[in-house]
Amino acid sequence: MKKLALLVYPEFSLQEVMNLSRLFRWEYDIFTEVISSGTAPVTSEEGIAVLPQKTVQEFDPGGYACLILPGCSDFTQAMKDQALLDFLRSLQGNQELIIGAICSGPLFLARAGLLKGKKFTASIYMDLFDFCPFLERENFVAAPEVVAGNIVTAGGSNFNGFAVTVARLLGLDCPDRILSGYMDTWTAEDYEAHLPPEAVEETKAMFSAL
Predict the structure, then answer these.
(1) Is 78 helix (H, G, I), strand (E, B) or coil?
(2) How far does Cα 16 stand from its chain's mean position?
(3) Cβ of 168: how many Cβ atoms within 10 Å?
(4) Contacts (Cβ under 8 Å, ≥6 apart) of 125
(5) Stated pTM of the model
(6) Rounded-to-integer distance, Cα 89 and Cα 110, Å
């Protein structure tokens, strides 16, 4: 199975994409691979350092189910990263790779020209349209998420809906509230999980060896 590519840059939001990564791992057995413009650790806005597994120069679109861009609380470094922008520009015209960008992540797509003429949303100040010529005000949609071809953009607070929409764009069966986190109803049995019969002996042996 192809992997999910998570593009990271300084001050990226880990929180906005972790539910998506969890959904893909445990529902579809799709692992996340972290990519960046370099190989040095990248620190998220939460202060968590992440080690890239591949650089953008090593990225092969055919080897991934989708590319995900998280939001970013401080663009000081990332927006000046030429390797990052060149990488995104190289994806122009690629209609096969699903690309998802959440919160302020769509700004990177817009800067690289991938949102030209496309409807999109983002968690940004409306003032940015006045001094960012690459942002097309007429194509901005004030909504939780917008799908334009192979690109889905979402507001930062819609991280669960974003995950579901990306999964569906990939043709995966995904219920609306799979990541809601709310326990509207529950029973004691919900918290009394049991191993599948075929896994009992293997698990028993594993713990016996500790």
Answers:
(1) helix
(2) 8
(3) 14
(4) none
(5) 0.89
(6) 10
